[in-house]
User: What shape does this take?
Amino acid sequence: MTNRYYDLNSYLRNIFGCRVQKISLDAGLTCPNRDGRISTGGCMYCNSRGSGTGAGSQGLSITEQIMRGKEFLKKRYKAQKFIAYFQSFSNTYGPYEKLKGLYEEALAIDDIVGLSIGTRPDCVDE
Ligand code: SF4
Assistant: This one.
């Protein structure tokens, strides 16, 4: 059956000419609901790993996580291009220079064609 809407996978395939897959990343960040700025208990929308892989707390860099993700997703989905998905916790919650470094590290890797950044509105300042 043909989709009655223009889905993201089709859009990305039309732009890049191949399957594009998200790589879930854990940048080792936190969230104001967990670090005590607002509370320490978290909320119902994530677990103690921020609903992510836990790779950040294992000490894996963004580059290492992306290289592993690429290998896996190439085999599993025959993906050729990737979006770096900063998934765990709130990924704009931190000093500007640190965040910029994390995003730029991801964008510098071959075949990374974009970023997806999970966060919350009160963690996006000027
Ligand atoms: S990262 Fe998001 S889901 Fe998790 S505790 Fe913070 S606000 Fe809630």
